[in-house]
Each structure stands twice: as structure tokens, then as C-alpha cells.
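Quick question, first post here. What does this chain look like in 3D?
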Amino acid sequence: MIPLDIIFLTGLAVMPSGVLCGLSSIFIYRLRITTIGFSVAHGALAGAALSLLLQVDPLPLSLGFALLTALILGPLADYLKAPLDLVSMVTFSLHTALALLFIYMSPGTALAAQVVSSILWGSILAVTPSYLILLTLLLVLYMLYYYTFKPKLLAILFDVRLAEADGINTRLYVYTIIFLVGTTVVLLLKLVGGFLVFTLIYNLAVTTMQLTRHIRRMLILAPLMGVTVVYLGLFMSFLLDLPVGVCIVISSIIMLLISVTIRRSFKV
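> Answer (accepted):
Ran it through. C-alpha cells below.
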């Protein structure tokens, strides 16, 4: 039986989680940075595995690895003069190798399995008051950034090359977006899990595309769908006693099928 305070906190966490997922899905889709989630999520996994080896709290190292990945991906891609997605997959493979190495070297197989499982699959029990505050602060930061630089961000989301031709420093804005998306992935790892958080984000992008291709409408519709999907997933998790991350992703697939039906029926 899940304590009532955990259920209450989880309910409060739904709104910022869904909105952050929705916004991130559109930024990832429009900027074609679809592998960011893989790299950041596995950066967190490598950090958790290192914490097992050092026998310390896994949260700081998980956040540190993941945020560092999100912070350096853009500059690293420019330095190597390689596509961002390609560099992202290089860091993904490095993080995977490090995670396996740290787990192999760690004492206590049961503890390793428990910590790694929570990172991979997520847990309702991960929702704490401090976690809720972090989600809310990130959402406020996300919204402030978007509305402060809205005209330039919309131009970049429409076409990066046209935005550059208009004199916009696209690199700075794209780097910031990568960091915000990466931070979103880091925080949602605790709830949805590393295997599923980027799947949820991609599903939201595809779902939104079924109903509109207008950027402004996508930026409104995707967060609304994100909140709906997370609520449905949590309800399914409580009802069926299944992992919350799995249920949230299943609910996103259901939403995708509904959006396809709407598109075909009403020729949206």
C-alpha cells in the first residue's frame, strides 16, 4: 500500500513533469537532437554506478554526470566538427561502458541491483518535497527562458539556418535548450526511469505532430498532452500495481493511437 503523502506529492508532480516533457519533446523534434535523452540518461546511470563503487549517495553523482553531459554536448560537437546526434551517441556508449565497469567493480550485488533498477525503471517513492521543488523550479526557469527569448526561439525552431541568416546567435540558444532538456531528463529519471523517459518524450512529439504542424500550437498542445499522459500513467500504476514508468509510456502510446484516429477521422 502506497502512503497517502506519496500519492499526494506524486499528484502534484504531474503538472510540472508533463509540461516539461511536452516542451522538451517539441524542442528535441524541431532541433533534431533526438539522441540527447540517451546520452543524459546513461550519464545518470554511470553516476549511480560510480556511487556504488564509492559507497556514497547516488543522487549527487547521477545528477552531476547527467548535467555535465547536457552542458558539454553542444560545445563538444562544435569542437569535433561532427553532428550533435553522432557526438551524443559517442558519449552514450562511453557512459554505458563506464556504468558496466563501475557495477562490475562494486561490492554488494543486491544494492547495485536496487539502485540501478530505480534509475532504469523509476519509482513513485522517488517523489519527495525536495524533488517537487526542483521540478517546479525547472519549469519556472524553462518558461522564463521561453517567454524572454520567444521571438528568437520561435525563429530557431522554425528553421535554424534562416535564424542564423537573420543574425541570431543560434549556438547559444541551442546550447541552453540542450541543457534544459538534459536537466528535464535528469529529474524525470527518478519518476519514469532511464529506459523510458526519452521514449515518453519522443512519443509526445509524434503524438503532437498528428494533430498540428504549427509550432506555436505544438508548444501549447504538447505540454497539455504530457500532463494528461502522466496522469493516466499514474492512475494505471496505482490501479494495476505496475511500475509507474512503464504505465506512463503505455498511456503515451494510447494517446498516440487516439491522435492518429483523430487525424484520420477529421483529416487534421
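The chain has twelve helices and no strands.
The CA atoms of residues 9 and 106 lie 33 Å apart.
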